[in-house]
Amino acid sequence: MTKVAKYVELPLRADKVEEFRVLLEANRQHTKIEPGTLEWAIYAVDGKPSSVAMFEVYEDESASAEHDTSPALAPILERLGEFLDGDPVIVNLRYERGKHDD
C-alpha cells in the first residue's frame, strides 16, 4: 500500500465563507471515524482571506476514494458551485519517503 495525499484550495465567495465552514466542519468531524484517513486538516491561506485549504493523507487510493464518496462530503460537493469564487486547486500526491524512513 502506498500512502496518498491531497491538497485542495478553494477560493470562496466572501459572503459564503462562514456558511461553507459549517459544512466543512461536519466533514472534518466525519474524518475522525474514517479508518483509512490518516490526516485531514483545514488551513487558512495566507493573503487570501476568503480561501480555505485542506490537506488530506490516506492509507492508499482506496481510502481516498472512500472519503470522496462519504456521506459527510456529499452536501459540500452538491453545493460547491454556490460557494466558489474561482477555480479550485486540487493536487494529488503519492508518498515517496519521509523523515522516519531509512
Fold and architecture overview:
With 102 residues, the chain is of the alpha+beta class. It has helices at residues 17-31, 61-68, 74-83; strands at residues 4-11, 37-45, 48-58, 89-94. It has a 4-stranded antiparallel beta sheet. Strand 2 (37-45) and strand 3 form a beta hairpin. The longest helix is centred in the first third of the chain and has 15 residues, at 17-31. It starts with a strand and ends in an 8-residue tail after the last strand. The relative contact order is 0.31. The model has no long low-confidence stretch (mean pLDDT 95).
Quick rundown:
The protein is α+β, with helices and mostly antiparallel strands and 102 residues long. The chain is 32% helix and 33% strand.
